[in-house]
Amino acid sequence: MRPSHLRALPRALALAAAAALLGCPPPDQGQPVSTGLGGQADKIAADRGLTPDDVAAALKTYMPSGRLDDHVMFASSGHAGQVLVIGLPSMRLLRSIAVFTPEPWQGYGVGGKESMEVLAGGASDGKQLTWGDTHHPSLSETNGSYDGQFLFIGDKANARVAVIDLRDFETKQIVKNPLATSDHGGAFVTPDTEWVIEGGQYAAPLGQGTYADIAEYDAKYRGYVTFWKFDRARGRIDVERSFGMELPPYWQDLADAGKGVSDGWIFMNSFNAERATGGVEQGKPPFEAGASQRDMDYLHIINLKKAAEVVARRGVKINGFTTIPLQASIEEGLLFFAPEPKSPHGVDVTPGGEYAVVSGKLDPHVTIYSTKKLFEAAAKGSSNKDPYGVPILDFDAVVEAQVELGLGPLHTQFDDKGYAYTSLFLDTAVARWTLGGPYADKHKTTPWTLVTKTPVQYNIGHLSTVEGDSATPGGGWLVAMNKWSIDRFFTTGPLLPQNFQLVDISAPGEVMPVVYDLPIGVGEPHYAQIIRADRLKPWEVYPEVGWNPMTGKVDPNATAKGKERVERRDGVVEIWSTVVRSHFTPEHVKVRQGDKVIWHLTSLERARDATHGFCIGGYNINLSLEPGEYASFEFVADKPGVYQFYCTEFCSALHLEMVGYLMVEPAGANK
Amino acid sequence: MLQHIRAFFGPRAPRGALRADPGRFLAPTAVLGLAALCLLTSIFLPMWSMKLLAPQYPKGLTVTAYADRLTGDVDEIDGLNHYIGMRPLHEAAQLEREIAVASIVSLALLCASAVVVHTHWAALLALPALGFPFVFLADLAYWLRDSGQNLDPTAPLSSSVKPFVPPVLGEGLVGQFKTIAWVEAGFWLQVTASALIVAGLYLHRRAYKPLVDARRAEEVAGAAT
């Protein structure tokens, strides 16, 4: 163990404290200098006090109206429970995608039957949830490269994974993990998206709802990882063919799938090898101290390919979910540990799968493991075991290199020039460093060395480069996802936005400037992925009129123009409506108090962007009817009165006239 | 009766003349046959298109007329037209579209029959086909005028968009839409057929008129004796 690790933490804390006390120095304004553009540009630059670097940053990112971004970033929105879609390099927010949280604009979970069913699929032990803590988006891959078809994202708070179809940017499925209440290491995909990885974090008795006192932590609390089987043809996770693995009660953190030479393996870091159980109120060390005592934690090396074969034989049911018990994993040789310093955060596999990079968090290094050496050591086995019997490989035998980057390394991404980029939380900087091995020819610097650091504002968590976790990183741009913005924007009260900073990484060497700040004022994003825009093939309108986005075909209840109708049977009123600029048909709907109302709506629109909304005030219903879309809802008209239903999306010159009346006759009234 | 039929079909080319100068007799057959083929092919090609341009529709909206149907953004245009009280496009020229294919086939057959009719009747048979594209355009202009002039006075935008006549060719303006109309390949193929018919009838006359005249002279001479 290198002694610098032990020195690092106090230094980091001291610096953080100093920064908090003194505040940060104002950025160097510099003197306005000629931009070289001449004429009006020089005058504007002088008037606004812009430096030539500022002007260059503006020129790199400014998008004239109508010009489209060539990259698209999918970012989690943290506890807002959505995905944010952002264009690069303009950093314009294009839209959000509702995932775990009801969202009225998209008609998501606000009465509409189709989206309510998706949300219901994510119910936790029977309880309907109305939010999620989105963490790690993961684009579907083919042969290790993004294919632009699907996006997965995990919900840390409730141990769920969602599937988003990128043809219509809508959430199609939420699966709830039966093993646990919460997770962290999800979602990550294998190189052909056969499996979606969801790792646990805070250990608990396996099987949500299972009770054991925390005094029995070592014996009864467990970690886990889940491999969700993705059925690409159906565009859904196949729960029946998915499985979990029981793990020791360390706090599994983040995962990455091997690829190329390490295809079929999974790497997962962890912390709290101490198995600290907290209890600060009882005078015990709090988790933050108890879980940070040891110099080493355990990198998990999991043979997924073999596990998928073994599961049929060794799997048991926990809460009805197939799980490989820890002892079976040990006996079958599915699980190995390698020591990793210290309470690390983030394990990231290089584009060809040769190395797994672990960021130290409380250690100033990134530690680079050779996957080949890991597999060789695993094949040899080890007599060194953890308390549960998992073989621990020899650190020196599996480590390729360590690079000292600075304080608080968290996450690593790659580019096309043989560089790796690691976020430094405490340094609040992005480090560029060089890869060795097959990547050494791509750059002119010594392998495994720090090249440069760019300060970011402030407290960077994840970072994302263009397709930077795939087999084919693009380079060019990096986005620093900063947790704090402090003084970067107008003060919006005590709650401040996060700060996404665009960093230009196109030039090799030491120049790596921040060129744009995007405030994110809706939640606390974690990870994001950036994809080349030309890989995405979204629909402009739904393929056919009456398209049900959940079934992926024309709905049997879709209604053609002229076929609108209202049918009444015992206590049920069923309505088939059409929606087109600028009217609903029918416009009068009369029901009796207590009737169950089933309402089908079909948008007849074929024009791009001709979206309508449909709301009924007082009954908590709002739908989004995109061109060609079918949607439906059901409710009991239990309150009498006259209710307007109107179009909530300004659709046309006669949008305000796009209205109808729902008349709910009081139950006692004469017919 | 047989005499009348014989008089209608006219003389056949004498074997000797046909061998001596085959081009003279084959030319009208080929040209009129080609005209018929052009007409038949035009059934499958678009005749006319109109593009509507407005800021909200960056790619524009297009409606394309074939002899027997309308394609393109018909529903979208109908949707917009309901604001100004214009009837749906498919309500216009229903009869014309219904009989279009049968008409073109008939005209092409008539045109082709001129190949075997070697008298002046051939001209009468072929001439209707010659006029088809121009009748088509005139009919289209009529319906555009009829649709544009007969707007529903209770329509939402009836006060701001007054009855109008969309030009059958070239540019016009309706509300915020600029319209551009032009004829398409099917129309030009029919015009080509018309030109071929004129040329074919000339060649026809050149080939058979002397024969007809000769036979008539024979008949006159015969009657005289």
Major sheet summary line of chain A = 6 strands, mixed
- The percentage helix of chain B is 55-70%
Order of strands across the widest beta sheet of chain A? 8-9-10-11-16-15
What is the fold named in CATH at topology level of one domain in chain A?
Immunoglobulin-like
Assembly annotation: heterodimer
**What integer value in Å does the Rg of chain B equal?**
24 Å
Structural class of chain B: alpha+beta
> In whole angstroms, how far apart are the ends of chain A?
86 Å
Secondary-structure-based class of chain A equals mainly beta
Radius of gyration of chain A: 27 Å
Short description:
The complex is a heterodimer of chains A (671) and B (225). Chain A has 671 residues and is mostly beta strands.
Describe this protein's structure.
The complex is a heterodimer of chains A (671) and B (225). Chain A is mostly beta strands and 671 residues long. Chain A is 13% helix and 38% strand. Chain A has a domain at 547-665: Cupredoxins -  blue copper proteins (Immunoglobulin-like, Sandwich). Chain A contains 10 helices and 42 strands. In chain A, the strands form 10 sheets. In chain A, strands 8-9-10-11-16-15 form a 6-stranded mixed β-sheet. In chain A, strands 33, 34, 35, 37 and 40 form a 5-stranded mixed β-sheet that branches. Chain A has a 5-stranded mixed β-sheet with strand order 36-42-41-38-39, with no helix packed on it. In chain A, strand 38 and strand 39 (621-625) form a beta hairpin. The termini of chain A are far apart. Chain B has one domain (35-207). Chain B has 7 helices and 5 strands. In chain B, helix 5 (94-113) runs antiparallel to helix 6. Chain A binds chain B through residues 580-582, 604-607, 653-654, 657, and chain B through 57, 73, 75-76, 79, 83, 156-157.
